[in-house]
Specification:
Helices cover 30% and strands 24% of the residues. By secondary structure, the chain is of the alpha+beta class. The chain folds into two domains: 18-182, Creatine Amidinohydrolase, CATH 3.90.230.10; 184-223. The longest helix is centred in the C-terminal third of the chain and has 24 residues, at 185-208. The model has no long low-confidence stretch (mean pLDDT 87). Residues 161-224 form the Peptidase M24 C-terminal domain. Pfam families: Peptidase_M24, Peptidase_M24_C. InterPro entries: Creatinase/aminopeptidase-like, Pept_M24, Peptidase_M24_C, X-Pro_aminopeptidase_P. Residues 1-149 form the Peptidase M24 domain.
Length: 263
């Protein structure tokens, strides 16, 4: 169940295990939507593999360069592939248009292999990239960034423009949930470049606002990932342990980072 309405019957105290936070807001200069999955204890091997597969799908979509006549629905398999490889799927689209001063879900963009559409991406479109993994009665994972469609300045041999995506959302991932041995070298490089952008654009803002707890939490969550196999990887130690921030702190930094990026 990817979405639900909380009630006294379903509310539980957060003490350990996985927590999925789907947050966002509407501001004068843009609309944000971001999802991150945190773990308040020590994740299992199953949870780490599931999280990593979701992250890989997210990265593969973000890295894509494509001709402008490609239909959004045709990109869905790229993000779902790693989850399909584990004989699972998620019951929602991979992405939707992001509106401003309107519904967060804005037509016509819908990245879903079940969608029938004639629309294509245009430079300046904003949409969500949100693959997931849900195990009934156990746990759920969703990672979501907002992407902007950008022009690469290059032309396809058929005369169409080559377009690409730029991540607008800058919020760290849960490092201890990532099995880096499952990531390819280009995917690790993407993750390191993404983390470097967080440090560059958000680090100074956190320090300016004197939010040092959030700053040090962010620095821990954005440590460099070795892009080639290390001795530790050969020995089976592929995840990184970091200090924890409270749920309230994680929510605070999530809202701050997504708000800051649009300024």
């Amino acid at each position: 169940m990817p979405n639900y309405t909380p009630s006294n019957r379903t509310n539980i105290e957060l003490s350990e295990g996985m927590v999925l936070i789907d947050s966002g807001g509407q501001y004068e200069d843009g609309t944000t939507e971001v999802s991150r999955t945190l773990h308040l204890g020590e994740p299992t091997a199953e949870q780490i593999r599931a999280y990593t597969n979701v992250l890989i799908g997210m990265i593969r979509l973000s890295m894509l360069t494509f001709p402008e006549n490609l239909k959004p629905a045709e990109l869905d398999a790229l993000a779902r592939g790693p989850v399909w490889g584990s004989m699972n799927d998620y019951p929602h689209g991979t992405g939707h248009g992001i509106g401003s001063y309107s519904s967060v879900r804005e037509s016509p963009i819908s990245i879903s292999y079940t969608a029938k559409q004639r629309f294509t991406f245009k430079e300046g479109y904003f949409f969500s990239n949100e693959p997931g993994y849900y195990k009934n009665g156990a746990f759920g994972i969703r990672l979501e960034n907002v992407l902007e469609v950008v022009d690469t300045g290059k032309m396809h041999p058929t005369g169409y423009k080559f377009l690409a995506f730029q991540d607008v959302t800058l919020v760290p991932f849960e490092q201890k949930m990532i099995d880096r041995t499952l990531l390819s070298v280009p995917e690790k490089k993407w993750l390191n470049d993404y983390n470097a952008r967080i440090r560059q654009h958000v680090g100074s803002e956190l320090k300016r606002k004197h939010k040092m707890d959030a700053f040090y939490w962010m620095m821990n969550k954005t440590r460099h990932v070795p892009e080639y196999v290390t001795e530790a990887d050969y020995n089976g130690v592929a995840t990184t342990r970091h200090d924890h921030l409270s749920i309230a702190g994680a929510l605070t930094i999530g809202f701050l980072l997504t708000r800051f990026v649009l300024n």
